[in-house]
Amino acid sequence: MTSLLPQQLTPIVKNVAPTTLTAMIPPSRSAGVAMEGKSLFTCHQCGALLKFKFNPVSIEEKITRLRSLEFDHPSTYSPVDESMSSAPMGADDNASQDDENEDQSVGGSSPNTPNGGKNSLGSPGGAGASVGDGTSPTPVIAREVVWENQRMVLGSGGKKSAQWAPVAFEAAGLIAAFYSCNRGVLGHSINEVVPARLLNKPHLWVTKEWEIDRTLAHCDDEGWIYETSFENFDPLSGELREHVVRDDAAIENSSSAEKVVRRRRVFRKRRVDGTDLSWFQELLDCSSLLLKKKTPSCHDCEETILHGLEETLQGIVNDREQYETFLAQFLVNHDEESIKYEFDGYEDDPELRAIQEEERLLLEEIESLDLETRQVQSKRQELWSTGKDLEQLVRGTFAEGAFLQHLLGLSRDERQSVGVYSVYASDLLRRLQRYNVFNDVFHIWHDGLFGTINGLRLGRLPSKPVEWQEINAALGQAVLLLAIIAERANFDFIRNKLIPRGSFSRVVSAHNKEYSLYSDGGMFRRRGFNQAMILFLECVDDAGRRAMHEEPSMKFPYKIQRGKINDLPISLGNDEQWTKALKCMLTHLKWLLAWISKRYP
């Protein structure tokens, strides 16, 4: 009976329902919104949007705090291999400092916050500055660090046939064949721990192949560190724990049979161009490290949590006072009953033995219930762990979905831009196809009784004597036009040949005799000039016949026959008739110009 009360006190204390923190926190206002909107910019309790003060810490420093891996800037980077940093890979302590620098508020913006309270990813002077901030992006050199783990596997011949093999996944110690220090990912190969978007872009890598880090302590020529178990390695830095490090003599004296595991560190350097998109991808690679820390809370949720913690503390203090009071009374009553029963001779009382037996059975039942309770708690803990993993997976899925949606928007905008430019290019092409270059180069029109080509009058009247320099220039333009038409249509004149030389053009007859198609008004050169005009008119007639042969429906307005056009002599004699004949000839040339533009665009 003396041992009954102290033994019953333990289950009484255990069965007291504790006031948990979860019960004191009010439920979320919108669980769906909180789940979908949960990010670094929302309250992790209610999902409300937060606004932050300007933070001078650059995105490069934030990622460095998550990874504890430094970046090399091109101005200070050299191709020579540098010593690898052995700083711990944990980032919860460092990353928590970012939360202290941020000012959370559900409504309103701080007057010190630039851009109306919006917080940019990178500071203006940091490596994350983008082109939109007015500065050109600064590229940096990042190190991809991967641990490779192997275990000795015994063969059929025992230790003699033992071989080193990649480690299978061990959930207890979170050990796998490869582990990425940059993003905290386990995998069976490097392709599983390093994103494919980096491996498939050789231009991003500064070093072509993975290099072995031989600067670690107690490593051999191939960079391997041998130990008896992976528990001797620090899970953060990956190197040996301080209490495991031995001197060289102890390492040499250690048995080779103890060295059943080994690991080494390989690294490869790549380039980050410094744009907002590249830093966002780097931050997305840190999602597994980033999701380990909770996002900030808003002011209302913090007050609620603090109030709940105060009530919980007060309840615990009250329970403690009650326990102390009960123990004090229990000890006093126990001493009095012990003194009382010392003088009673009921040790052999059957009723007492029955009660003790009942007490033993009850204690055994309590032990079995405790064992069952521990098993249930273990299963519950596994369920909670699975739920947390599922929540992290959902968060990562939403982050990747947001990034893919952003890329989809960029692709849609680019496609619309290409479509608009295609419409513009098609319209410009149609206008250029309808554009006739010959009409601009050889503009044939009239100025009263005179026919003109490029503004040069062709003809001469007593009332309006045109200078022979202008007439010669107009004839040179006509010869050049007819020569281009023949070249474009790919035909030769039947008897004559044109030699375009501007104001001093010539015509070669079938007998290889040249005639000048220019004059100064003198009587001595008139005969040769008239013969050149007749030969030129024959060339115009040859071009017209070729056009009507290729296009039978085409009919010229004037008939050319024996040095005359529309029954007007082309030879210089009567100024009025000669001027009208030249005007008809220019009309004939304009028809040929229209035909060549349509037939040979």
From TrEMBL:
Domain Atg6 BARA: 432-598
InterPro entries on file: Atg6/Beclin, Atg6/Beclin_C_sf, Atg6/beclin_CC, Atg6_BARA
Biased composition (Polar residues): 75-86, 104-122
Region named Disordered: 73-136
A GO molecular-function descriptor: phosphatidylinositol 3-kinase binding
Pfam families recorded: APG6, APG6_N
GO cellular component: phagophore assembly site; phosphatidylinositol 3-kinase complex, class III, type I; phosphatidylinositol 3-kinase complex, class III, type II
Single GO BP term: late endosome to vacuole transport
Domain Atg6/beclin coiled-coil: 296-427
Family: Belongs to the beclin family.
Protein name, as recorded: Atg6 BARA domain-containing protein
Organism annotation: Globisporangium ultimum (strain ATCC 200006 / CBS 805.95 / DAOM BR144) (Pythium ultimum)
